[in-house]
Every structure is written in C-alpha cells, then in structure tokens.
Amino acid sequence: MNILTEKQRTEKAEKIADTALQLFQTRSFGSITMSQIAAKSGVGKGTLFNYFETKENIFMRLLLSGYQDYFENLIQDFQKLPSQVSVEEFSNFMINQTQYLIRDKSVLVRLNALRAPVLEGRANMDQTLAGRQVLYETSQRLGQVISEHVTFISKSEASHLFIVQSAIISGLMNMMGLDEFDHEQLSPKFTDFKINLETDAIQTLKFYLTGFFASKKQ
Amino acid sequence: MNILTEKQRTEKAEKIADTALQLFQTRSFGSITMSQIAAKSGVGKGTLFNYFETKENIFMRLLLSGYQDYFENLIQDFQKLPSQVSVEEFSNFMINQTQYLIRDKSVLVRLNALRAPVLEGRANMDQTLAGRQVLYETSQRLGQVISEHVTFISKSEASHLFIVQSAIISGLMNMMGLDEFDHEQLSPKFTDFKINLETDAIQTLKFYLTGFFASKKQ
Amino acid sequence: MNILTEKQRTEKAEKIADTALQLFQTRSFGSITMSQIAAKSGVGKGTLFNYFETKENIFMRLLLSGYQDYFENLIQDFQKLPSQVSVEEFSNFMINQTQYLIRDKSVLVRLNALRAPVLEGRANMDQTLAGRQVLYETSQRLGQVISEHVTFISKSEASHLFIVQSAIISGLMNMMGLDEFDHEQLSPKFTDFKINLETDAIQTLKFYLTGFFASKKQ
Amino acid sequence: MNILTEKQRTEKAEKIADTALQLFQTRSFGSITMSQIAAKSGVGKGTLFNYFETKENIFMRLLLSGYQDYFENLIQDFQKLPSQVSVEEFSNFMINQTQYLIRDKSVLVRLNALRAPVLEGRANMDQTLAGRQVLYETSQRLGQVISEHVTFISKSEASHLFIVQSAIISGLMNMMGLDEFDHEQLSPKFTDFKINLETDAIQTLKFYLTGFFASKKQ
DNA sequence: GATGAATGAGGATTCATTCAT
DNA sequence: AATGAATGAATCCTCATTCAT
C-alpha cells in the first residue's frame, strides 16, 4: 500500500469529496466536520489531509469538478442535436437544464454561494485557479458549440448565459423558505413571500431568454 | 443611566447593530466576532448580550430592519408618483431601485443569503417571525400601492416582484468575482466569467419585466 | 424613602433572603442567579447589593438565621416540658425533631452542606462569625436547658447532639437518590442503595441515642 | 502514538482523572477549571475532551471508580478473614474501615456530596448508570460475603450498611469546621460546635452497629 | 435609597490541523 | 501511505458586581 498509482490516489480523493458532497446535501458547510467526513468515508482523519490541504479545498474541488462535469455533459448533449437549432428549441433546452440543475444538482448552486465568502479565504489558490482555468476552457468550448448551433448567440454570450442561469437559481434559492423558519413550515402566512423555486426559476429564465433574443433581433 | 427610555434602548441596540453592519461590509459573518463588535461599538462584551441574545440575532435584525426600511422608502417614493404610471415608467423605477440596492444596500442582499443556512439556526424564532410579519405587511402595502398606480400588475405580483429583484441581485452577487481570488484581482483572464453586477442585474430585471408585462397583455 | 428605619431595613433584607430560600427549595445554589432573586423579590438587582455584599452572604444568613430560629424554638418547646424528662421521653422528642427537620426544614440541612465548600469562600467573615457567635450562645442555652431537664446529659453533650443530628440527616441526604438520575426515577434497580431518608435518619439517631445513654449509665 | 491500546487509553484517562482528584483534595469543584486540569496533567486542553465529555464526567468517574475500588478492597479484606466472624470483630472491622475512609479516602465522601446537586446535571447518564450498575453488583457481592461471615446480618443489610457509613462520614464532614472560617482556625471558641471527625464518626458508627445488632438479636 | 444598565473576567467547549508511529 | 491521538487557538456566552442617576 506504500505507493499508490495516480488512479488509486484520484479515486480515494474522489471518495472523500463524494462523502463531503453527500453530507452537504442535508447540512451546511459550517456544521459538517472533518471527523464526520472521515468517518463516513471510512478513512482516517489524517488521511483527509493527505488528499486535501484544508476543509475548504474539499468543497472548492467539489464546486469546480461539479461544474466541470455539468459543462462537459452539456457539450455532449449539444453535440447530439442537429446542426441548426431554433431559438425556441434552444430555450426549451435551457429550461430543461434549469429543471435538471434544480432537481439533481442544487448542491452545485449552493456550493457556488460559499465560494467567495467562505472557500476562497482558505482554499489553495494555485489549485483553485488551475481548476478554474480548465473550467473556463470548457465553458468556452461549450459556448463555441452553442454558437455554432444557434444563430443569434455568440460564444461569449453563450458562456455567460450559464453564469446567469446559476445566478437565477442561486438567488431564488436564497430567497426561499420565507414561509418557514429553520425548515419548520409556518402556519399558512407569508404566501406572497413564497418562492416556488422551479416555477420561478424557469419563468425568470424564460423571460431572460426572450428578452435576450429579442434584443439580438433588433 | 438608571432606566433607559425605549428610545435610548433602541438607539443603543442600533448602534451595536450598525457596528456589526459596518464590519459585515468587508468581512464575512463567520470572521466577525462578538468581541470585535463590542470593541468597535465602544461597549462591553456583556452589553451586547443585554441587547441581543445571540450573534445571529444581531444579523437577523439587520436583515429585517434593512428590508423594512427599504420597503418603507419604496412606498414613500411611489406615493410621490402620479396616480397612473406607465409600464415603462414603472420599469425604469425598478431599474433605478436595483441600481440603488446594488450601490448602497448590497449588504442587505448578502445578509439575505445568510438567513436560512446560518441565521435561522440560532436566531430567536418569535422575534424573527414578528419582524417578518411586519415586513410582510409592509410588502403587502407596497404591493397595494404599486397595483394602484400600475395597470397590469396585481398586489401579489408586485409584492413577489421584489423577491425576484433581490433574488437576481443576490444570485449574480454569488457568481461574481470569478475573475478574482479572495478579492485579489487576477491578471485579465476568465473574461466571460466576469459578472458586472450592475449591468447584468439591470439587464436581467429588464428582461424579466418585459417578459412579465408581455405575458399580462396577452 | 431616603432614610429607612432599622426595622424597614431588616424587613427588606428578610424579604430578599426569603426569596432566595424559596428558590433554593427547588434549585441548586449554582443555578440560582441574583437576577432571579431580584425579580422574584420585586426589588432591583442593585438593591440586593445594598443589603448583602455577595450572593454567598445571602445564603450564609439563611443558614445562620435558620438554625437560630430552630434552636430558639427548641428552647421554647423544652421549657414547656416538665422539670424532669426521662431518657425515653427525651429520645422521642429528638426523633420528633428529626422528623420535623426532614419534613419542614430540609433546606436548612442542605444549606449546611454549602457552608464550607461554597459559602465561606466569599461570605463576609466578620458578619458570619458574629452570627455564629449568637448561634453558639443559643446552642449553649439550649444545651443548658436540656441538661437541666435530662439527667445523664451535660450542656456540652446536648449542644453537640444537635450537630450530630444535622450531620446524620445531611449525610443521608447526600446519599439519597442513588435509585434516580438527575431526579428522574430509574426502573426499579439499585434497591439496596435506596435511602428512605426519614426512616433511616430516625433509626440512625435512635441507635445513636441508645448508644449514647448506654455509655453514660455505665 | 497512532492507535492506543485500551490499556493506554485507560491509563491516560486515569492520569487526567487523578490530576482532577489531586486538585480536588484542596480546592472545590467550582474553583477547579479544565485548564488547570490540563496544565497539571501535562496534556492539552483539547485532550481532556477526547477522554471526558464534560468536567462533570471526570468527577463522576472519580466517584464511581473510587467506591468501586473501595468495595473491591473490602471484599478482598473480608475474604481473608476466618469463615465465621463475631459481631464484635465485624464491628471493629467497620470501625477500622471508617478510620481508613476518613484518613485516606475523604475525597470520596466529598465527591458523593457533589453527585446529585452538581454532577448529575451534566454527566453522561448512560455512562454513569453503567458505572453505578457495576458498583451495585460489587456492593451486592460485598453484602453477600459479609452475610456469609457474620450471623445476624443479611446481604441487603450489609450492603445498606456501607451507605450509612458514608452518610455518617459525609454528614459529619459537612458539619466540620464550625471552629474555622474558610479553613482559617479561629481563636478557641465554639468548642461545642467542634466536630472531631474521626472520633465522632467512629462513635456514631459504633452506636449504630450496637443498636443494629441489638435489634437483630431480639 | 433604589435602580438597572454596563461590565469583563472567566469558563467550557469545538474542531481543523499536525505529526509520531 | 494511513492513521487517530494530541493539540490549543478561538469563540460564544454567563453572571456577580459596580456605579451613575
């Protein structure tokens, strides 16, 4: 066990990160401890630090690789589409993606909210920037692919669109739960404060896309 | 000093809360300590706890009273407008407000992001709900006023609009700084990741409003 | 209200002390706060300190005056008895007293257990010793009265007997509740650990008195 | 240092507990701090909490293991005695034990006085009850052994006798020091208040045993 | 004399991280 | 490489006491 292959090393790091992700589904960053991650991963506490310098690095990696995977999948999905895609078809695609992000990848969006205020303060800068660089390139490739399929949208605009998409979901997420307190439902009150995340996000994105394409057509 | 009037008590509580707010302009919730707030307020550490049960209560109060003030001002501003306001005029109003929120009240939006994951866990529930109740009523009054001035928008829709507005700003804020690391500007890179908060928020809101009114007119 | 008569002053001090005593019936010294005493007494927190230098002084006073009253009453009771009292009658008297102490004055015994380890560290020494002096004299008078009524017991022995009586009750009290945990009854277990305070105290005292008088008669 | 054997773990826990015990010889529970225990044990403050959940748990353990050892030793001592022991021999044995408890194990008795009012509020209940269970069984075994050696005393009575023994010592201890103040000897005064712990405890126990056996013989 | 606002020393406890094995 | 025991800085909070009014 003395010398691990690169693959073995990567797999163990992933196991640790995955465990952290699972914990993050139901708990906040602050309430997750390294001990819990170690116990649930089935590795020793010290081992964590052989793979990640700090707790923040674990979550920064989750954020970067999560978006990396998401963007890669988007590229794949897009390449399956016919060479030309109408504005309407593209909008539907984005709406489906939004639904998917909310239903299956909401942690990604929650991780995003941690990045600047929590993670960057103690994450390894070089590592983070290297990951971000790769992500940026992927995002550029994604933008490229989209711009090739959809008239009226440039590479830059496409790339930026996904930032806006995440922003909308993240923002609405922040505003959710005003009809609850600490996850306890309150007696029916505050109805106009209530956010239906999926409905509101899709509507907001739809309006955004409509507005965006309208502005391009002029 | 023996017995404080309600006003004096409120003023001191506000002084403490204001200090916390100032610290929050440049630091994160987690890195602000009660000792710092005490020292910077010029009061003893114990005094803090005479005014606020917990650290979280301080910030919950800032959040609630911040939005309370914001909504109250909006009502005032709106009442100065002519009895009928066109959709375009209303949109401009909202855009100005967005700019104002970003430029002068961005902490409010950042506080919002703390609410569910951080504050509610340890804030006094009754106090919070009382504050939220008042805020809700104000938001309803605001919605009422708007619906009276603007055709095509109901009280509920107007009230909900401000939630969306905050969501957009908050979400974009979360996505900002991808061209920085821990507030250090990086050499020009990641340009398509860059969020220009004001521009992007206004554009997104504009699109939202356009889409919203278009959907109403049908 | 500027100048209080000695009587008024004493009455207020007693009101405060009484409140503390009431709280002590159901709570421990450590969990009683000066704020609670003030609130329940209906006086200001600062007023407490006009009457008692420290929290410990309040309880020391309760201890001293409690025993003072108890001894005074004993003297009165004794003086009502016929001039000669048999050993058996005296024993019955002591047993009744034990029962009374347990049923109605158990706080007194609990206070006793606080004296050395808790109170003396921060109680006013002069005041305490003055009180103890008075108590001592009363105890001597009590001893005197008893020795006059009961053959076979000297003043010193009688005086000492009450110390032993309190010791027995206090000690058994300390050993109570081994069939409970933090006042929660446990499922029937530990039966031989169980102390029945009244029964055990009376039996122990009875044995003590029997032994004592037997040793004197030899 | 990587993984400690059960024995090593126990030893370190004992080292910490021993340190607490030493401090408790001369200071009160309330005035002993975790920092002091850590410093005097030569371990870090955090280490304390790896071994004991709370400060109260340390002292609860001292209490339980102290009595456990005491009872075990008593069983051993008793098994060395001839198969039949006269009432007088047994009484002498108990008196010697009382002397030993007072001279060498008085902290044990002082710890007992902390149990209900102080320790149980914050000690781990399951741990405590497990320890108490073991102690109870030991006490039963001790009772058994005694009842086998001494006619006139049942297992239950023997077991209960040790509770009474501790109660007598503990109670007298509470009443001690009335000729002192905060451990400072006062000029010769209050002589009849003076408890000579050893003499008084032995005498009280002797009377108790005499009374007890007399009641059995009838 | 009465009051309660202000105080701050002091305490228990948490947890990311280190490092000897 | 893996481990988990050890660590101690850091944090929130309590509450007896002081003192200006």
From TrEMBL, chains A, B, C, D:
Coiled coil: none annotated. It holds the Pfam family TetR_N. The keyword DNA-binding applies. Keywords: DNA-binding. Residues 33-52 bind DNA. It comes from Lentilactobacillus diolivorans DSM 14421. One of its GO terms (molecular function) is DNA-binding transcription factor activity. The keyword DNA-binding applies. This is TetR family transctiptional regulator.
